[in-house]
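Work through this protein:
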Amino acid sequence: MDNQQHQISNDKNQVSQDQTNINNTQNEVKQDQANVDQDKQNIDNNSQKVKDDQAKLDQDQAKLNQAQQTQQNDQNKVNDTQKQLDKVNSQINNQGGSVPTTQVPQDYIDVLEGKKQMDWDTADNIMDNVGPAFKDSFVPSSSDDYHVDPSNLTQDQKNELNIYAAQIINGIRQQFGTTPVKTNEAIIDLADQVAKNYNSDNFNSQKMEDNGIGAGHDANALGNQNLNDNPYGITWTRGSQDKEFFECIGNASNTFDYNNCTMNDLKHQILLGIVGDFYNDTDPNLNHAKAIAGLSGGTYVGTSIDKYGNVHFEFSDDNVEQSVKDAMNKTNVSIPSDSDLQNQKSELENQLSQQKQQVEQDKQTVQDLQNQVNADKEQIKNDTPTALQQKLEQDQKKLADDQAKLSQLQNTLNNDQTKLSQDQAKLKDLQEALSDPQAYLQKAQDKVNSTKTTLDNANKDLSDKQATLDQATKTYNDSVDKLNQLKQQLANDQAKLKQLQQTGNDYANADKALQEAQDAYNNAVKDLNDAQSQMNADSDTLAKAQQAYIDAQNKLNELETILKNDEKTITTVDVQWIKHPHTTAEMGNEVVLGSSKQNTSTAVTMPAVNSESSSVDEANTVHADTVSAVKEAQAEEATVKEADVIHFTTPAPTSIAKQEAKENTLPQMGDNNSKATLWGEISLAMAGILGMLGLAKRKRHE
């Protein structure tokens, strides 16, 4: 009894310490929850901050795209100016393809001006010396050493060839003091179409006729209606000076390959055509030479080459209809002189320098904006819930750890409280067993039945909690899968956005695709944040379900322990206190209570089975029918001192004792046969209890 009370005192101290630990941990859990709530609030607050950051990034990205486009445009201007400067330098540089010139003999000037007749000396000089020297004055340019298609020249290439022809012609006209020739895109287009007509007619003006005269001009090509199908509104009529245009053909006999030629080849062919018309004119009146010299009109000229290598010069004058003149002047192509070239070079160099400076400024602007865009992206990265999410996850983990710790401490408290209750119950059992054994056994049996019912309910509750936990786990796993999918989508959108941003640096038409990718990226960030929040909620739900399941499992374990203890209590009180022998017959009608130094015995004597009376000496016997009688006997010290044996006069039926020994089960309350058996067993047990707790002790003291 004293040991049990001491154990109860220790149990109470342990329970008190458990409660202190729980209180401390509850405070930690409370602070953890506050941290988690604050983290979630920070994430919600920063959602607007991320939107503001994204808006700023969009604005700066738009500025960057515009700046990159401006840089590209300015760089294109630099490239164009550089090309123009290269051409001017090529024209100025004697080693880079300068315009061929010739010194016209004065005798020949006089002949063309009609001041004298052609003589053999003049003709021989021209044929043998001046003409060949003029042909040999051509110097190819490295910038013109590229292949072209004469039947499909660009407008710039056509203009360049016509300027070249006009410069050579003007070099001759300058020596005659006549009006310099001009050119324009309208008459250049006319010359180009004439050459194409010659080609389609397969008309070679160099072909000799039967009369020994060249084929001359193709009337069909020069009068074809397609000449008037032009965008300038000009109706071309071939004739002399009173018509819109007239033609001179320079026959250049050489190895020109129309299908495989360079820009140098075309310019060389033009020079040969001019030399042929001016120094080797087959017209008896030298009308071709006079047209080149400007002595027979020809203010405007358009030049082209047909597939036979013949050079066509289409001339027109200022005396044409005003509408034709106006149309040509609107498309005028400038023909620079040497001084003009120098001035043009100077202007282009200044322009190129300024443009390059502007490009450098553009580059710096682009770099500054690129740095700003990078900073915007970094700001978004810092302000997105991803960074805050890490802190939230850390705080959630600490909360979960402390909650688990609290749960463990609560379990410890529950176990210690259970142990305290059990020890208190044991003490109470001892007290109740001494006072009223039959009522105690009935109460214990009722408790077992109640505990079994509670245990069944706990099993069902555990099953329900398991189903809830399974559903919460599935929901959480689905949320994690969705979050992973959105993370992958975000990575894909970021990669696509980066690619399109790079594409946007080089191509202006990528703006739409870039904006679509930017929108997709923004939506992916929003979806990712929403999925993260949903996963957090599902995580909380899962944690609660897990805790509910753990609590239910602990409750079930607790109830199973209680049931085992209750059943053990009944067995201990009713059976285990008297293990052997099982019947009063086996005991010899005596239960030894104790022994003295004189080897005398104090015993409880039972009626012998199948015996009507006891043979024990009445002088050493205390007669008793009930346990209360035993207790009265205990109270009377004199009687106990004089008696060594207690007699129970109520017989113990052997059939019930044998049945208990065979089945090892407890008799059920309410059974008539079991009542007698139960009372006999209780009496027998009480005798043992009294012997252990009182009489034996007194005997030893004596």
